[in-house]
Each structure stands twice: as structure tokens, then as C-alpha cells.
Design brief:
Blueprint: H1 5-18, E1 29-34, E2 37-42, E3 48-56, E4 61-68, E5 73-78
Antiparallel strand pairs: 1-2, 2-5, 3-4, 3-5
Length: 85
């Protein structure tokens, strides 16, 4: 049985606030990176849009944003950062 959404959101918000050196994520979005793979999970009750440039590995398409539905997830291989001149 899963935790009620409000408890999951509070835990996710706390974890997101503690992370340093990472982009700010909407409340209730969990992100994990392993090697070149970024996993995104929306634990919230509403859809959220995440800005991430790379390849959506489930849809096999280039993306600049991912829309995660409630309890939705995505696997993204981020593009390398653009170099400044």
C-alpha cells in the first residue's frame, strides 16, 4: 500500500530541498542519475513539466521538456552541456 499523496509530497519536497548542485525540481518529483541515465518520477497528484535536454529513452525521441503525469516516470539520457565561447 502506498503512502497518501500529501505524505509522499512532503518527503519528496524535503529530499529535493536538501540536494545541492542540482537543478530545482517541482515538489514531488524525484530524480536519480546512474551513469548517463536520469530517471524522473512524479509522486504528485498533478502533471508536471521538467526541462531537460536529451533523449527520452522510452519514446526514442529528442526532448527539451518532459511532461510527467501523476505517478508517471521517464528515462532520459541528457545531452552534453553546451560549451560557452
Amino acid at each position: 500500500m502506498s503512502a497518501p499523496r500529501d505524505r509522499r509530497c512532503a518527503a519528496c519536497s524535503t529530499a529535493t530541498a536538501r540536494s545541492s548542485g542540482r537543478p530545482t525540481l517541482p515538489p514531488c518529483v524525484e530524480a536519480a542519475r546512474r551513469g548517463e541515465l536520469v530517471t524522473l518520477v512524479n509522486h504528485g497528484a498533478d502533471p508536471v513539466t521538467i526541462t531537460i535536454r536529451g533523449t527520452d529513452l522510452l519514446a526514442h525521441t529528442a526532448v527539451g521538456e518532459i511532461v510527467l503525469q501523476p505517478d508517471g516516470f521517464a528515462f532520459v539520457r541528457p545531452s552534453p552541456p553546451e560549451e560557452s565561447p
